[in-house]
Every structure is written in structure tokens, then in C-alpha cells.
Write a structure and sequence with these properties.
Blueprint lengths: L12 E3 L1 H18 L5 H8 L5 H6 L15 H14 L2 E4 L4 E4 L3 H5 L6 E3 L2 H4 L2 H7 L6 H21 L3 H4 L2 H10 L4 H4 L7 H17 L2
Antiparallel strand pairs: 1-4, 2-3
Length: 213
């Protein structure tokens, strides 16, 4: 009797178009209405309606997109941003990793292109499991950043259909987690990041580091 082959399970995805549009709309409004740009952390605060001194000082609680993303957790939003960076819908700019929309992001913002996002398995893991998986020699915030970089690497590898180590090895992620480069120039000092990989992944890596700054 012929033995049936078990096909790999389909990735767990969700329709991320509306979430992506909310994020992109916030970036555009800040740029067009106020000439401002911000990194992931503050954009997520706007979307989730955070009540902070910075929010009131900047009058960002008056934006039309303020609080429209309360349906997603902070971790969910970080996953959305990581995936949009990996797809080239967003790019990280400058020393502080502010986020901007690319040409590829315009059809998404207009609702002309579907956005299927993978659920972040790391986000569903317990804090205890994340701590247990932290590499030897990294503790606290460094270990947390390493895990975030590893989650981003897995996403980037899946998007390209290549093994994770093709993107970056663990030694490179470890160096990124401890050195925390803040610019493309500073990435040159990290072992395992040549010119080609810096061009391909530099902005996305800096965005992950900025999120955990």
C-alpha cells in the first residue's frame, strides 16, 4: 500500500491590509500635515492611543488616526512593522530609524494589494519560554533584542524561501544585540555583514534594534 506523504502545514496568516493601511496612513499624515517622521515605538503609541506626555506635547492625540489600532497589541504592531519592512513596503531612514513609505507601499495604502501577514509565533510564546531560549552569554535587554532579531530573521527567510542562516548567522545576531549599531555605517563593524547584506537587510535590522532601544 502506498504511504501518503504528509505535506507541511500552511503558514498561519491573517489579513493585514486594514492594519497596514492604518499604519501607513499615520505615517503619511504626520509627514504631510506636520512635516514629522517617527520610529516604530511612537507610531505604535499613536495607533494604540497611548496617553503620554510626549503625545500631548506633540498634539498627536489630535490626529485622526489616534487610537484606531487598539485592537492590536504592541507586540502585534511590532510584528506588522517587521513584516512590512521585510517586504519593502516600509523603509527605515536616518540615524534614528524613522519609518517611511516606499513606492511599493502606495498600492497597499490605496487598498489595491492584499497583505497576508504571518502570525508571530514568538509573540504567542510565554515569557518563560523566551527566557529559556536565550543564548548563553546574553542577558536582559541584549537577550530580548537577540530574540527579536531572530524572529525578524525567520520572517525574512520565509519571505525569500531560504534557510535562516542564509540571512544572518547566530554570531552576527549576537553581535548586533550587544553592539546595537544605530546607522548603516556602524553596521560595517559587525562581522558577517558585507555590502550586499547591508543593502538588503540594513534598514530592517536597524528598525528592529531601534524598537528595542
Amino acid at each position: 500500500m502506498r504511504q501518503l506523504r504528509h505535506l507541511p502545514a500552511a503558514p498561519d496568516t491573517w489579513d493585514g491590509l486594514v492594519a497596514s493601511q492604518k499604519l501607513l496612513s499615520t505615517i503619511v499624515r504626520l509627514q504631510r500635515e506636520r512635516g514629522q517622521s517617527f520610529g516604530a515605538g511612537h507610531l505604535i503609541d499613536i495607533l494604540r492611543g497611548a496617553e503620554t506626555d510626549r503625545m500631548r506635547q506633540q498634539r498627536h492625540d489630535q490626529l485622526s488616526t489616534y487610537g484606531i489600532g487598539k485592537d492590536l497589541s504592541e507586540q502585534d504592531w511590532r510584528s506588522v512593522i517587521r513584516q512590512l519592512l521585510a517586504r519593502g513596503v516600509l523603509e527605515s531612514q536616518g540615524e534614528y530609524g524613522t519609518l517611511a513609505i516606499t513606492e511599493a507601499g502606495l498600492p497597499v495604502m490605496r487598498g489595491e494589494e492584499p497583505v497576508a501577514l504571518r502570525r508571530d509565533a514568538l509573540g504567542r510564546a510565554s515569557g518563560r519560554a523566551r527566557k529559556a531560549s536565550a543564548p548563553v552569554g546574553l542577558e536582559g535587554e541584549d537577550a530580548g533584542l537577540f530574540e527579536a532579531l531572530r524572529a525578524w530573521r525567520a520572517e525574512a527567510a520565509r519571505e525569500q524561501g531560504v534557510p535562516a542562516y542564509i540571512v544572518f548567522g547566530d554570531a552576527t545576531l549576537r553581535a548586533l544585540a550587544t553592539e546595537r549599531p544605530a546607522s548603516l555605517t556602524q553596521l560595517d563593524a559587525i562581522s558577517g555583514i558585507g555590502a550586499k547584506k547591508k543593502e538588503s537587510y540594513g534598514d530592517a535590522v536597524l528598525a528592529v534594534i531601534a524598537e528595542h532601544g
